[in-house]
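Problem 12. The chain below contains 203 residues. Write out its predicted structure in token notation.
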Amino acid sequence: MLNENELKTYTQLMKTRFMEDPGVIFQVNGLDRADLLIEAQFAGQIQAFMVENAVQVLPDGQGLLIGYATREWPEERLTQVMQQSAQQLLAVVNSEELQLLSDRALCQAQIIPSNWHLAYGATDVYHLLVIATDKSARGSGAFRKLLTPVLKKCAANQEPMVLETFNPDNLPIYEHFGFQLMESHRSDDIGLTCYCMMRSAEN
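Solution.
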């Protein structure tokens, strides 16, 4: 587990990296306490998934990865972890902010197809939720260091990897590691596109 200072460090890493993400920008646009709410959301997410051994980190806040294998995570377990991850945010958010965040999350969910990978014959997959590296680590191989152990595990288990991203700038990075863009879903109402990517177990 991370101590308090380490949690702050990795929360800050996520905040710095994802405040540039179109999905997060949409979530908190116009909120006066956006920084506080995002920090609470990310800290809760790290803690909840850390308890489930679903977080990998590089030392000194250089990188963080969150993901899980669906064969090990029945729907009830994922639901419980997601509920737990929301506790820190719920402790600081007011009713008006909560309503706005909830409405926007529903809008986003409409363009993230549930279990879209099943259409490609991929039943058991590794779902990559978050990967972030510090800007100072650019060119150091930090992204590869985080991803390589997961790639090896997926190859051993013959599990494809899947992810969703709202950031088109991420596509070439993931393609470099063998992911393919399988489908995309656009909402002009909210100005977001969800990109669904998969890396086959054979890669």
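Discussion. The chain has eight helices and six strands. Students who got a different answer should revisit the alignment rule from Section 12.3.
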